[in-house]
Fold these 2 entries.
Entry 1:
Amino acid sequence: MPLAIRTNALTRRFGAVCAVDALSLSVEPGEVFGLLGPNGAGKTTTIKMLITLLPPTTGSATVAGHNVLTEQRLVRRSIGYVPQLLSSDGALTARENLDISGRLYHIPSAERRARIDAALEFMGLADVADHLVRTFSGGMIRRLEIAQAMLHQPEVLFLDEPTVGLDPVARRAVWEHVRRLREREGTTILLTTHYMDEAAELCERVGIMHLGKLVALGTPESLAGEVGSGATLDDVFTHYTGSDPNEGGTYRDVARTRRTARRLG
Amino acid sequence: MTSLERAARPVASAEPPAAARFVLDVWTVAEAELRKLAHDPTELLTRAVQPILWLLVFGQVLARARAIPTGQLGYIDFLAPGVLAQSALFSAIFFGIAVIWERDLGVLHKYLVSPASRISLVAGKALAGGLRALVQAAVIYVVAALIGVHLQVGLPQVLGVAVVVVLGAAGFATFSLVIACVVRTRERFMGIGQVLTMPLFFASSAVYPIALMPTWLQVLANVNPLTYQVDALRSLMVAGGTSTFPITLDFGVLAFALVVLLVIAARLYPRLAI
């Protein structure tokens, strides 16, 4: 079985800025891998290259064994993606959103209906299946988005800041669903986050990015052990990036996070 | 779950052939748009107001003034196809704003990571823009009948009108999508949209015959797809209406413009996600 994700000196420049700098990374099938780093570290740019939305400047990558540059359609068939922004359409119902997703992946109709019902049940959205998504709470929208991204049973699921803007109860619910989903489906998950508790809670292995480079890689425990006894993932983060994960970045980052939070309601 | 079970998933088995996938994907994207309209049809209703005013106010006054020579055809009969084309243009030209909105939200990314081909995604949007214009066409037919326009109601003519309206509106919706991909923000888009609609409208045969125009404007009108849309509508929609160009040329120009715009849009659309 090929690696779920493999990148080889993957690089993306925007003009003079190097957003991702020669990233080489391997993720095993079935692994939950966390990509950590302050805002602007290159996490989202990395994801966008892996999901074929952004061509790399140099370097290469495979996802589920398919080349992201030359086998885009095969990559797209094998992945699910939940963006940091909203991906469910507020002007449609939950069921319609799922149906559109299922049809774009050509799941046969009887099978599709069965999977949609099961997904709504699993995500605790069966009662509101035919309500417009714009009436949903942030946590409900996130669960729907994850259900949408999983409907075609992808081999690799990408979650970009899955709980940004959610309150603690909704965050726990999303974590719980991600964990159960993974146990049931065995899906490989790559998630980005700047919440260290989220990474410690969900990820088997984490990589810390800083200014486009991978500066640390390992299990949360082993990384903490390297920094010092009694260290937490917060300390690891500060050690490698020189910034406090709870400090919250620049004016622009704050504006973006608040905007996302408001949209998720 | 073991790796054996994972390997047994029917990943590549039941995929339809490429041509069928194209048709299915186009319809899926279009249907999503139409469902949104069905949930909230206010936009359709408000967009119907303007063409009604053109027919009721502008048309009635100019018909009385007898200022515009339209041959055997009464002015209101001459104007009705122009107003139909115009209303399709005006609603389609702002279609791009919804695309920018989807991009700002993130819905766009969902479509772009799906295996659907880029051209089927933009063609689906275009088809939705085209079908949406049919609702307006229906409203205009009713109003036109009420004010005494001599409509042709034979099935071939009505179907012909429907095809022309869908082709034209799909083309202008795609044009709008291309602009959206270039300007990328709602503010700039609103400005450009306003700037473009009036020249497109007045440099066409919608409200007066091309023969009345100064030469330089005639040149513009002859390369304006709206002229060909109006031309086809004029011969199909009203009794006694005649087209300046062969009707096959009208259809040909509209179809050609649509295909060229779709190809451009399919190239630009993915860049919105960057």
Entry 2:
Amino acid sequence: MEWGNMVHTIPTAPTARDWINAWRVARSGDSDSILLTADGPILTTLLMNHKTGALTRLCWDMRDSNGGDAWQPSWSGIGETMVVEYRLARERPELSWQLPDHLHVRGKGLFTYPLGPVRADVAESLLYRLHVMGDEIIRLTLQNGFKERHIRSLVSGKTIQEALPVIARFTTTSNVHHTLAMVMAVEEAWGIQLSQQVQITRVLLAELERAYSHLGDLAMLAVSTGLPVPQMEYLHLKETVLRINFALFGHRYLRAAIVPGGVAARGWHQDVDPVGAAGMISDVLDQAERMQMGLERTSSFMDRLHGAGRVPPAAIQWGRPVGPVGRAAGLGLDVRRVRPYAAYSDFDLNTPMETDGDAYARFRIRVEELGESLRVVRRILGGWNPRELSPNQALEVLNGPPLQASGVGIVEAPRGLLGYWLRFDPKDGRIAHAAIATPSERNWAVVPDAMANGNILQDFPIIDASFALSVAGWDG
Amino acid sequence: MNGSDWILTWTVYLIVVLAGGAVVSRRGSRGVHIWLSVSGLVGSLGLLAMSFFLVPQYARRIPLPAPWPTLVASPLPLASLWSVVAGILFLAAILLTLSRRDGHRILYALLPLLSGVGVFLWSGDGLLLLISWEFISAVTYLGLVTTRRSRPVWNAGWVLLSLSELGGMMLLVALVWLMPIHAKWLQDTLAVHQLGGIPALWGNVIMLLTVLAFGVKAGLFPVMIWMPMAEPEAPGMVAGIFSGLLPALALSGILAVEIMVGASLAWAVVLVVLGVLGALSGSLYSIVSRHAKRVLAYSTLEILGLVFTALGIWRLVSLMTPNSVASTMVLDAAVVLLVMHAGAKFVLFSATDFTGRWGQTLDRLGGLVRGSGWVAGLSLLATATLGAFPPLGGFVGEWLLLEGILMPMGEGTGVAQHLGLMVAGAGLALAVAIGVAAYLRWYGFIFLGVHRGMKPVSGEQPRRSFVVALAMPLALVIVAGPGVPWFLPWINHALAPYLTSGSPVVAPTFINPQSAAPLLPIGANLVPAPGAHGTVFFPQAFNVGNPYVLFWMALLLTLVVALLRKLFRRGKGTRLVSPWNGGAEPFAARTSWSAEGFVHPLRLAFAKFYGLSRTRTHSEGAHFYRHTIINRLEEQVYAPLIAGGRWASSHIRRIQSGRLNQYVTYVWIFVVLGIVVGMWR
Amino acid sequence: MYYWHWLKNIVRRPETTGFPTDPDGIAKTMSNSDAIQTRARPVEGFLRRSLAIRHIDGGSCNGCESELGLLSSPDYDLTRYGFSFTPSPKHADILVITGVITDAMVPVIADVFEQMTAPKRVVALGSCAIDGWVFRGAPGVRGGLEGIVPVATRIAGCPPTPGDILRGLLATVDGVDPLSGLREIWP
């Protein structure tokens, strides 16, 4: 199995214990686990240095174990990959992956408040079990899996062209980033070079997605505090951005705009007006800034957010949340800066950071990222001409065998770090194995700890909205 | 039959019952049970019959051979009322013991108590009061410890005995103090009279001692501590009698001494303070208790706190503004509360004998209305009474009490009294409000909702005699509630020597204003009688001040809704689906509101008072959470006393068991001390 | 500060589109003209215009949820037709189901439909709920509501635009697509 140039591979560990120990050592330094996957008999973790962006691969081949005590994979207790560990234990019984005993919660008069899978007005299916004492949340247990679509196994064996529509429906509100990460892995494997115009267009697409996603999350946060007016304003701004998306790229959610080797120009409208769109983006930016100022002057909003759902320091260390959740809690990882992709190295992005880790910090991060995204979009649209994009030549190449057997794509999706590692069939280039690490599945792990951190039942919707995680990203 | 005949009768009754029991016991416990039940029936009917004789004209002297002084058998204040109450409660208790295997043991303790009550009601004289009260104390102890044999029972028994003895000694001191003056007066008349020539300070001290002495039995803060310890351990009917009857008797005892001494303002203030503290702490501990009987035991303290406050305010108001009708109202309130509490609490305590089949902690109960609709229904009536639901007794009592606090505030009292009444009123209102929540919690988590225990709720019907026994004491609730228009004039007549105001207090309902003038309805002009100007039925000036209006309105609206449903219902009736629980998690006890959860906000609000702390232990693969609260009185007042006593006794034992060095050291210390004192003198 | 907008909107027209009952160029461009198929029949006095909607996610990619959420936005404002979202199925008249319908959600959907009081109608929202779309054949994916609940209306699209969702909801009540005035029934 070949890896991209940027991947530094540590020699295969002789035993599972060595493998996990090496993993722990690497993680205790500057590295974070990005993904963990079992590709047939090979267990692989990918770690990324959160300062330099360098990748490290650690793997262990189950076939190397020649009896004895060699095979002892067990719960490694590394929060970033916990969801995957559970999945491995469930789906790959032959690995005999051991999980820690699930702790029950009992107590005098403690009772469970079940919420979901059918809950709220419009929400994704997830069962929250809030163990409460009166109003006080003692513990939260989450049960997912109601909407498991098995995308990872579904795309295995498919060609790139067949797999792309499925990947684009992993999480629609991050579909540009999912497609982008997959396409980056493909381009790495086939060694496809891209023009600067294409790269900038990809940044435009990514930041448009971040903008409408954050606007939707802010609308949810506003209504969770009982403020329908800002909710309506934010929803209107989201709809405005979605309409700009449609005007520029022919799809409200920018689906199928990114393809291997370029961007899909075919579905675009002929009468695209980037300058007019830039003007509208300016308006959205002004409105969003005004909304933020208004909300920060609304005491009923601020009172509910301050100190609500603070992620405990232990959970930050253990779970290493990514994206706005991580940046609100003092973890400054931003893939766009650490490991620039597309044309991000041309943009001097301002990554906001907060250290409180509460709902208000997450709100601050979101509004500032929103402003930054909209500014980047405006800047790109100012000098962007879709007609200059050269026709995409790369699609034919994909029918042939890849130059290297696997590729990695790591991007900063609206909810945080999104990693794809794809292994291709060396003969016909079909996808042989897909390892996908979504930010939601990683961040959900710290939600229970943040929820059971001195909050009461009435804080629940606010904390839930402030995390703004998707269940589709967990139940892929 | 006159007083001395009755005392003789009760003495003979006790001897015959016990001797008969001893004789029959050779035939086995079943025979004893029958013998004691029949005797109990006779005794209860005797108590009911005695109520006709408890008037001053039957008072008699009982000469005893020298050197004993002459005893005087004269009725205590309100004796005939308590005689009826006691008769009903004992009758119900005897019915309840029929279905119990250990019924004869309970009866062995109850019947001496019955005869003791019979004698006590005649003890208008100090010596007889002391003797019969001591007897009742001893029998209470026996009633507690003979039925169960567990550590908590013995502990509670010891606490009860030691506090009772403390009270007995206080009563002895008080009476010995009174004796020289008292004896002189008794020569002239058999009725109790106010004694002259007692300095105010003495009077206060005597009254304080008396109140503490009777307060031990009556649940006065802070000597009531045996109650929440003992009552959960005693069988339901015994706890019911302890909780319902003993306080009533104690009130009469206090009143009897009070009229001789004529207590002053200081005593009244102390009583109000203790009463409010007792009511507040009682209701606060009641609502956080887990044990079904302990909730009731603490709520007893709440009601008795109200009674003692009423007593204090009665004295306060009758000294400050003697013409105010408020003093009459609060004294009536005390009696009404005691009567309704005797009935209602007896029912609830007895109901816990039935619910005890499923468990005693609220977390293990629930949904028992499916177990027995009758028990649930009768308990609901009792709960509604205690929760002051109009028009039942608790409502009348609390209304009279709060009205009696509010009324003198408009009648030119001083600033200090005004403030004091305000604080007392606020404290009582808070206690009563928390009390209502506690009763709701008790009833709701036992009888309604889903069942939480292991043992399934099948239709385990109690015996018919059990239901009848539960229904009987509710007569008291009715008397104190809807029957209050007839009850109040009777009380006021019986308490005539204690009333300073000439105005009668008449309850508004069922009384035609024209025929009963001059009257002063409850709530003065706040609450006009139906038919008077200004009520909701005659809205010259709209006013919903009449509390019964709410009741009738609720009834009317319920009927209207039922009628509308009947008229406009379409289709084939109601389709039953399971409660909505999110779609995946089945609806079960685990996902429904718990009694602890219900009270948790209040527990947080009073966290300082409770000394709330949360512990998390890890055992058997689970995090186990619990919240601990401190019972301040037990742990911060009594525990150090007990610890001190224990330390002293163990020290003395060690010295006496041969530790020569220590012994000699102590001897030397005392010798040196003696020398020092001697030289100093 | 927010109340300023209420005042402002009195002077300036609100942002709300008239679509689908009134023409609106942008909303029509975004919408998919043959998205709506309905079997619902209009029944006099049966479903009147104050309808509560309960939504269930049967395994979606959250695109349909995003568009459903935008129905409350001032641009679409579903309340102008009397629709509203409700958290409890016991209050619901219309059940909107999105996603591929996973096996895990089948009993939940059946339970929710059971909890709803009659009259009630079901809308399959999005191409996934109609036939599983690109996820057809994935393990644990039903790909459709046949045999679980009776579907009154299908709204195709990935995701359907808010305008199309409104059309579908109106078609569920009236039995015809408000845009074309036609009633299309799937085989």
